[in-house]
Predict the structure.
Amino acid sequence: MPIYLDYNATAPILPAARDAVMAGLDLLNASSIHSFGRAARQAVTAARTNLADYLRVKNAQIIFTSSATEAIVTALRGAAASGVITSPVEHEAVRATVPLLPNHVVIPVDANGIVNLESQAGILKTSSAPMLVAVQHVNNETGVIQPIAEVIRLAKDHGALTLVDAVQALGRIPLDDLAGADIIALSAHKMGGPKGVGALVLREGLSITPLLTGGGQEERRRAGTENVAAIMGFGAAITHVPEHLQKHKQIGEWRDEMEKQISSAQPQIQIFAARAPRIANTSMLALPGAEAATQLMNLDLTGFAVSSGSACSSGKVGPSHVLLAMGVDEKTAAGAIRISGGWNSSPQDFRQFAQCYIEMARRLA
Ligand code: PLP
């Protein structure tokens, strides 16, 4: 079996989430009045309660969506703001949507991909109408953690709303810093839930214009028959977050050891944001002179599933927009690959990867 180190693209499904999805497939329409409908409704409510309990919010603050992408686009298009302030290292869901909106501004990031707070404050000061600040909690390519509590505080000080894409943070770091956020976007599949379900979490009392109009599901905020099975899988996965947070402490040690071995054997290899606050499972490395696609194929043949940057945009293996925004030159960025572990990773996965990567670097040099 190949070794899977691509959790930031998606995590293998947790057994408990799989069982919940399987049970959910037999349920019927959660909006029906009859007993079958009531059983499905109950299951959706139980999943919502699990998520609400973990986030310490009320059930009514959660809108289940088909993905974090849908949650993000709903928020960007539906929040009561006159424009969006965002960063250049956001996920494509943000990057592809903001140019379609009437007014948007991009704040620069530093060499680690961390947003410039002074710049954020400057833009907020000069905006006459309330803006929406859309900044991710954790970057999907480098694992860098934004100073999100500061971003939120600054926005609040200037009367702006905040949208935090916390997809890569959920299950990897505690979400306490998001306590003041107005809107949070989450996805189930990066932390062991099924693909095709996400959530939009709204501050109490905040309303949003729905993206999908139609039936009255999700309190008229997101039309469409609920994906009961996927929602149940999300609800089951979320109960495993506390143990995953513990495991991530170990994963951090394995990741750091891997990076140490790689840098001492091949000092020309660049590790991005190595000294910045990062989630424990992610490492982004560049081998100068070797295209990412070549490395990925080599690693695939030797039994490692990793990727170059964002898997959502793979297929196209181009230089990462995140690295380019961090000021990395195009040639180096074109040789960057991402290793990301998770709930089912072992220390051997990281050790064997280090060995294999070092050998590959020698071969390709
Ligand atoms: N935001 C981040 C940071 C991500 O990594 C991803 C997935 O790659 C998304 C948003 C989109 O999530 P989903 O796959 O649920 O649409």
